[in-house]
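A reminder from the course coordinator: this example appears on the midterm review sheet, so study it carefully.

Given structure:
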């Protein structure tokens, strides 16, 4: 199971390198079902893994000038604050038992997994659907919709904090629609936002004394980073747009499976 889990880490990184997102949505299921890590701790580990792999993935975009730093700061600040507050205060405040009847008990770990699975289903839709949001032409001055960017950044931070996913499926459309970034800049900018908010969100777990298996976490992260470079190399030969719908269907099936398995 560990071997399959580490292969999953490679595939997770490859998907990030190939299609620019979506791979982080696999991290929690890999940790829970293949390594036996509990759901809450898996979301903490996922923040570190997603943050580190996104940081490495952003380097090539930095070299190509695909990161719009002003947008990253405007969108990233509310997102970073939101994810830190979620990890440090909201997650610990969730009661151990959410719903209890004579025949059914929904505990905290089950609730996190179900919420995560719902996010997977929503993410799969954005991968499967055809068409792209309209972007602004390069060179045009960007007019920010600050109230909407503030709300979107806070919502993305909340989602990231609760389930440990990077939220690229929410960030990229937001950067294109609200900040009017060209698609390639949206992808590069989203990676730096994901890296910063995920790694700083992870500090929220460290701040409340979460016990971390650093050896396992660093090995898993290193393997995922190798996957990202493999994916980036393959992306020169394989179109990520063609792979994205197929990956979306896989994520959809996984999300439904987790919901059914958790409830039954």
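Designed residues:
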């Amino acid at each position: 199971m560990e071997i399959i889990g580490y292969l999953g880490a490679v595939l997770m990184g490859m998907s990030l390198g190939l299609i620019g997102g979506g791979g982080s949505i696999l991290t929690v299921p890999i940790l829970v079902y293949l390594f036996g890590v509990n759901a809450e701790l898996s979301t903490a580990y996922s923040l570190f893994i997603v943050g580190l792999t996104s940081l490495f993935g952003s380097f090539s975009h930095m070299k190509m000038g695909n990161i719009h730093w002003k947008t990253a700061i405007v969108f990233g600040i509310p997102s970073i604050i939101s994810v830190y507050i979620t990890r440090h205060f909201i997650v610990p405040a969730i009661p151990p038992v959410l719903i209890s009847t004579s025949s059914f008990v929904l505990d905290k770990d089950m609730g996190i997994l179900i919420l995560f699975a719902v996010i997977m289903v929503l993410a799969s839709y954005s991968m499967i659907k055809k068409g792209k949001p309209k972007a602004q032409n390069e060179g045009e001055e960007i007019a920010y919709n600050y109230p909407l960017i503030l709300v979107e950044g806070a919502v993305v931070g909340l989602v990231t904090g609760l389930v440990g996913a990077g939220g690229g499926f929410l960030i990229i459309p937001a950067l294109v629609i609200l900040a009017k970034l060209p698609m390639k800049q949206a992808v590069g900018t989203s990676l730096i936002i994901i890296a910063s908010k995920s790694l700083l969100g992870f500090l929220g777990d460290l701040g409340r004394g979460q016990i971390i298996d650093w050896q396992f976490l660093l090995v898993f992260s290193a393997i995922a980073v190798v996957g990202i470079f493999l994916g980036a190399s393959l992306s020169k030969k394989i179109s990520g747009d063609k792979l994205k719908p197929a990956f979306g269907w896989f994520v959809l099936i996984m999300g439904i499976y987790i919901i059914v398995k958790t409830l039954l």
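Residues 134 and 177 are 7 Å apart (CA to CA). DSSP finds ten helices and two strands in the chain.
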